[in-house]
C-alpha cells in the first residue's frame, strides 16, 4: 500500500497543478472582461454592467480554483512525506472531489480507497517516544 500512497500523492500534485493552470486561465478571462468593460464601445451600448459582472465572476472563480489547486499540491506533497495531518485533509479533499465529474470522481474514489485502508492508517500515526 506504500506505493499507492505515493502514487496518490503524485496524483494530488498533478490534479492541483492542472487546477492552478485552469485558475490562471480563468483569471485571464476576468482581466479581459474587465478591460472590455472599460472600452468606450461597450460603455455606449450599455454592456459595462455585464462586463463588470463577468469580470467579477471570473475573478472569484479563478481565486477559488487557484486556492483549491494549491491545497491539493500541498496535501499531495505532505501525503508523500507521511505527515500526520495529510491523511485527514486528503480524505476531506477526496470526499469533495467525488462531485467533480469525471476525473475528480475517480481521484476521490481512489483516494478514499487508499486512505481508509488500515495498513495506510498506521503509516500516518505520530511516532511515540
Model description:
- With 129 residues, this protein is mainly α.
- The chain has one domain (2-121).
- Helix content is 82%, strand content 0%.
- It contains six helices and no strands.
- The chain has helices at 2-37, 40-45, 48-80, 86-97, 103-115, 118-123.
- Helix 3 (48-80) packs across helix 4.
- The chain is elongated.
Give the end-to-end Cα distance, rounded to a whole number of Å: 25 Å
Task: Bin the strand percentage.
Answer: under 5%
Please give the number of β-strands. 0
Low-confidence stretches: none
How would you concisely characterize the structure shown here?
The chain is mostly helical. The chain has six helices and no strands.
List keywords for this structure.
6 helices; 129 residues; mainly alpha; elongated
Topology:
Layout: H1 2-37, H2 40-45, H3 48-80, H4 86-97, H5 103-115, H6 118-123
